Amino acid sequence: MAAHGGSTEENPVALNVAPMVDIIFCLCIFFMCSFHFKQLEGKMESWLPKDKGVFGDPVPNPILEEVRVFMKWDAATGMTTRKVNAQLVGSDEEMGSILVERIEKFKSLNRPETPVIIDAWPEVPWKDVINVMDICKRNKLEKVELAAPMPGQWK
User: Fold this and answer.
1) Dihedrals φ, ψ of 4, to 5°?
2) What is the C-alpha separation between 95 and 99, in angstroms, rounded?
3) Among residues 76, 154, 48, 65, which one has the least CA distance to residue 105?
4) CA 132 to chain centre
5) Residue 144: burial class (beta carbons within 10 Å; 0-12, 13-18, 19+)
6) Structure confidence by residue, pLDDT tens digits, 21-74
7) Residue 1 pLDDT more than 60?
8) 140-147 long-range contacts, CB within 8 A, separation 24+
9) pLDDT band at 108 (very low <50, low <70, confident <90, very high)
10) Confidence class of residue 3 from pLDDT cuts 50, 70 and 90?
């Protein structure tokens, strides 16, 4: 009888490495995707203006070049007063010609996308606002915007 001496030829022990490498690779990808990288947002250098608080100088209003129609309700007369920038306007035809003239000036300055801004107080009836929009449409002024009140205005 022959003694078993633990020869490797009869019972070879082998470790298949391919599935283990696949699992390790998948785990590496999983942990890399779930890792939260450090955010450097708060550590970036920035030079922001300092807040002066309530008693600081107010921010000056920028000088805007625009075509703005101001509309205000006059309770004494029961009518809406209309101004194009600072010029008081009476009739619809006069308003149309002034608006076209101002927009043409902007077009000559190579600014064709300048809008007509309608700035109406809350007391102004909607029919008057729509009338101004119709005047713009009749004069082929397609870009018309409605202004919103500044914060703190019209309380």
Assistant:
1) -80, 120
2) 6
3) 65
4) 27
5) middle
6) 999 999 999 888 887 766 655 666 666 666 665 566 665 544 446 888 999 998
7) no
8) 141/99, 141/100, 141/103, 141/116, 143/113, 143/114, 143/115, 143/116, 144/115, 144/116, 144/117, 144/118, 145/115, 145/116, 145/117, 145/118, 146/117, 146/118, 146/120, 147/68, 147/117, 147/118, 147/119, 147/120
9) confident
10) low
Fold held by 67-147: Nucleotidyltransferase; domain 5 (3.30.420)
**CA angle centred on 130, ends 128 and 131, rounded to 5°:** 60
**Where do the domains of the chain lie?**
67-147
Q: How confident is the model at residue 122 (pLDDT cuts 50, 70, 90)?
A: confident
- For residue 64, the tally of other CB atoms under 10 A from its CB is 7
How many residues does the structure list for the chain? 155
